[in-house]
Model the fold of this input.
Amino acid sequence: MSILLSNNYDMKIYVVNAFTKDKFGGNPAAIVPLSAWIQDGLMQKMAAQHNLSETAFIVPKGDDYEIRWFTPEVEVDLCGHATLAAAHVFYNHLGYSRDQLTFHSKSGPLYVSRTKPGGMITLDFPVNRPATTDNLSIFEQGLGIKPKEVYLSTFDYLAVLENQKQIEDLSPDFEKIAQLKSRGLIATAKGDKVDFVSRCFFPQSGIDEDPVTGSAHTVMVPYWAEKLGKTSLTAIQLSPRKGWLECELSGDRVLMSGHAVTYLVGEIQVGD
Done:
């Protein structure tokens, strides 16, 4: 399906809260559909101007689309919440009528669908199985509590704590966490009313605490699926804004479903 996207210097912008139904909850992402790629430096400046955890830029690629994500400081290889937000924009603002979307990214093809009931959107991402690591002292310094276990994934460290209250009570030392040679640090524990909970810290990328992190669930889902002996899991990310996810481990893919809500529709003017 062909969708008319904005030209390069008169751009539409959509701010969408992902993994929530709340206008002031979940993780806000800025979505900028383009007809062709603009300069990397301009995209980075725009992301810094928006000052949200991610700005996603989208360009047509045949019947599919390419997607790139920028924090206020750097480009990242994978972002879940901004991909869900982008799909929400396609389905609700750009007249996209198919149930499935494919975004091509630096992490490979990402599949999105709206086949679940209740208006939920499902992300289909590659699994990111973490491997065990040691040297717990630096993680204890960063989190203020000694983790039970620490793992390393492609992007992030994963610290496992005893219970949900420990996750809720965390007061991280972001300077210590920023010293980790990774994108950031995920802290997780078994949940009280859901299968698992988490908080995610990315000071290396200019985001001390991310409200809801889809890509982190590609790490946590295989971990908790093995620990709990089940492949369908529920999760809450316990940032102040909070986010709710329904997850499934499906072979070498992780399915993450959630709601999204539009907060803002506007126009970017960067021409002379």
About this structure: Helices lie at 40-50, 80-93, 136-143, 164-168, 174-177, 214-228. The first helix runs from residue 40 to 50. The chain is about 20% helix and 40% strand. The chain has a mean pLDDT of 93.
